[in-house]
């Protein structure tokens, strides 16, 4: 034991009336909601990068955190792994997620970096066996190092493309070995700064071929998990090719990969793209692409991705409503792509940030489940579109324009608008929150 968390006991459910801040008030993992345990609905996962690799910097200042594992040696990486699994055990989190660069030091060569990753994976495997914690997904960090400054798959240098391919292979191998349920491609710099030096068509073709190679390799090694792409707008490049759900769907259709890849949708990225989280989730579900979620929030007074732990129950409830309506998670889950505020220095802060977020998600999901069971939203939606259920209306979708026009004149149609009842629905939703 590292004793980093100063003997903080495992967090237990004590109910809404408890005054113990080191206890769950709303998250009882064994509570049955819609016929399933709450833990199995939410499928929580700790994010290795923000919880253990982030140093507290922001666009205007550097490191504020001091952690005993900060460094670039294997000894540091092994201590970090020990502390990480201590947190997983304290929280009772069923899953975790990682980037390769979060868990191992950069080597003097690619081969050394790969060996470092494999060695840490051996430690993960042993600790996963001991604790029962599972891997929700792995991913390769292809955005932090200077080699990625012009992208990875979309880079103008073919050597960087090759290095990216090798990086993904190594990380997919580890994810597969550890029983990961998904593999994520997070294109942090797959975009451009200026069109003056960018060939959009070439870069899109490179990105499409790269993703196809990833899918091919998945099948080659027998990886049964889901390949996920995470929509990522604006940050850090001026225009990201994976801007939002709609953009990625068009990309997948272009390269014939829409049946092979799903999406990991993040709240903060949805906001940066000018959408609500529930919009992106609903769109992904309607396209058959909803895979997993990064549950965080942005500061609405900031124009960048602040990655804060969720604390807004109404927002979370509307998000989980779309997840539940789509049938819930299969291989996906709720990953906390969330980080402490840079003034929150203490180990206790890291524990309590997760405790509060897990309670918020539990309250939100239970509210969403209650709304779904009540059925008022779906009933109102069905009533609004009821006219389209008639044989005449359905047939109209297959009729030519001139025939429809003739029917309008023959029937002397004069349709009158009907209320959308938005305020009524908003009022009804608030009863559950």
Automatic annotation (TrEMBL):
Binding site for Mg(2+) 1: 230, 266, 294, 337
GO biological process: D-xylose metabolic process
Top-level taxonomic group: Bacteria
Cofactor: how bound: Binds 2 magnesium ions per subunit.
Group of enzyme by EC: isomerase
GO terms assigned for molecular function: magnesium ion binding; xylose isomerase activity
Subcellular location: Cytoplasm
Binding positions for Mg(2+) 2 per the UniProt entry: 266, 269, 305, 307
Record's keyword annotation contains Magnesium: yes
Catalytic residues as annotated in Swiss-Prot or TrEMBL: 99, 102
Protein's UniProt keywords contain Cytoplasm: yes
UniProt cross-references to InterPro entries, sorted A to Z: Xyl_isomerase-like_sf, Xylose_isom_bac, Xylose_isomerase
UniProt-listed Enzyme Commission number(s): 5.3.1.5
Cofactor needs: Mg(2+)
Any one annotated GO CC term: cytoplasm
Signal peptide start-end: none
Catalytic activity reported: alpha-D-xylose = alpha-D-xylulofuranose
Family membership noted in the UniProt record: Belongs to the xylose isomerase family.
Subunit: Homotetramer.
UniProt cross-references to NCBIfam families, sorted A to Z: PRK05474.1 (NF003998), xylose_isom_A (TIGR02630)
Protein name (database record): Xylose isomerase
Lineage of the species this protein comes from: Bacteria, Pseudomonadati, Pseudomonadota, Alphaproteobacteria, Rhodobacterales
């Amino acid at each position: 034991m590292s004793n980093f968390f100063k003997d903080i006991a495992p967090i237990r459910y004590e109910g809404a009336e408890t005054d113990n801040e080191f206890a769950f008030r709303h998250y009882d993992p064994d509570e049955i909601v819609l016929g399933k345990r709450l833990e199995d609905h939410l499928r929580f996962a700790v994010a290795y990068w923000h919880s253990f690799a982030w140093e507290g910097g922001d666009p205007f200042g550097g490191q504020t955190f001091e952690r005993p594992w900060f460094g670039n040696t294997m000894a540091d990486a092994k201590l970090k792994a020990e502390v990480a699994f201590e947190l997983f055990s304290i929280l009772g989190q069923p899953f975790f997620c990682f980037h390769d660069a979060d868990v191992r030091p950069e080597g003097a060569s690619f081969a050394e970096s790969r060996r470092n990753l494999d060695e840490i994976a051996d430690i993960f495997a042993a600790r996963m066996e001991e604790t029962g914690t599972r891997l929700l997904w792995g991913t390769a960090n292809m955005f932090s190092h200077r080699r990625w400054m012009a992208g990875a798959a979309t880079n103008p240098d073919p050597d960087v493309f090759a290095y990216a391919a090798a990086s993904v292979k190594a990380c997919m191998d580890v994810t597969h070995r550890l029983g990961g349920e998904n593999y994520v491609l997070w294109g942090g710099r797959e975009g451009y700064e200026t069109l003056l030096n960018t060939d959009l068509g070439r870069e899109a073709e490179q990105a499409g071929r790269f993703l196809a190679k990833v899918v091919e390799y998945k099948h080659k090694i027998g990886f049964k998990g889901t390949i996920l792409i995470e929509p990522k707008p604006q940050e850090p490049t001026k225009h990201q090719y994976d801007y939002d759900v709609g953009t990625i769907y068009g990309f997948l259709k272009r390269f014939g990969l829409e049946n092979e890849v799903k999406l990991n949708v993040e709240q903060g990225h949805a906001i940066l793209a000018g959408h609500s989280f529930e919009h992106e989730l609903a769109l992904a579900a309607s396209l058959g692409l909803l895979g997993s979620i990064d549950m965080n929030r942005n500061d609405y007074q900031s124009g960048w991705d602040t990655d804060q732990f969720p604390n807004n129950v109404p927002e979370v409830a509307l998000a989980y409503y779309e997840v539940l309506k789509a049938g819930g998670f299969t291989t996906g889950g709720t990953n906390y792509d969330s980080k402490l505020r840079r003034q929150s220095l203490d180990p206790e802060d890291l524990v309590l940030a997760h405790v509060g977020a897990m309670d918020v998600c539990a309250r939100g999901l239970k509210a969403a489940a209650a709304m779904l069971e009540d059925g008022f939203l779906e009933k109102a939606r069905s009533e609004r579109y009821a006219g389209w259920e008639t044989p005449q209306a359905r047939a109209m979708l297959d009729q030519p324009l001139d025939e429809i026009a003739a029917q309008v004149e023959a029937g002397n149609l004069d349709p009158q608008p009907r209320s959308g009842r938005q305020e009524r629905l908003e009022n009804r939703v608030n009863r559950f929150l």
